[in-house]
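User: For a reading group we're discussing how well predicted structures match intuition. Take GMP/IMP nucleotidase. Before you show the prediction, I'll give you the sequence so everyone sees exactly what went in.
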Amino acid sequence: MKADCPHSALWQATDTVLLDMDGTLLDLAFDNRFWLERVPARYAELQGLAFDQALAQLKARMAAVSGQLQWYCLDYWSQTLGFDLEAMKRAHQQEIRYLPGVRDYLGHLKQSGRHVAIATNAHPDVLRIKLAQTGLGELVDATHSAHDLGAAKEQAAFWQALERRVGFHPERTLFVDDSLPVLASARDHGIAHLRAIARPASDQPPRPIDDFPAVEALPDLGPVPLRD
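Assistant: Thanks. Here is the predicted 3D structure of GMP/IMP nucleotidase, as C-alpha cells, for the group to look at:
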C-alpha cells in the first residue's frame, strides 16, 4: 500500500470528513451477494438461463454503464431486468451490517467537532433502507446521494455539486472510499486528503493498493483529536 502521512497530521489538517457508505462504513459483502448471486439467480429464473449465463449477461450490461449514474440506479435495473430490486433489497435488509469497529469510530469522529457526511452513489431508496436498518444517519451530520446531485462520484460534476451544497474547503477535507476511480475523481477536484479502504468486504482479504494512501478499515485512521 502507498505510504501515508502520520494520522495525527492528517487530523490537524482536516475540518470536513466525507465518507463513502458501502465498503467504507457498511460491509460490502451484502452488496456483493446481492449483485453477484441474488440478482443473477432471479434473472436466470425469469429468462430460463443457466446461472453463469445470467451472470455474464448482467456483468456485460453493468460494464456498459460503469461509472455512470445508471450503474447505481435501482429504477434503471428494475426496468432493465424486469423485476423489483428494491423489494429484493428489503427482503434481505437484515443482512446489512457495519464493517468491524466502524460504528464506535463514527461516534468518536462526530464528537471531534468536524463536519462528517456520507457521500454515496447509492440510490436514495437503498440509502433509506440502509439508514433505517443501521441507524447510520444518527452518527453523521448529513448524507448526500449522487442521484440527488445529478452525477456519479466518478464524474467531476458530482464534486462540483457537492462542494456547492456542503461548502467544504478541498484543502481541509478528508475523503475515504473503497473505489479507486472515485478517489481519482476526488483527487482531480482538489480534495487534499484521500484514503482508500483496503478491505471493503469482511469475507475477503485486504487488497493491495498502490495509487492512494490506504488503511484496512476506517478505525485504522487512529484516534481523532478534537478540532482546534
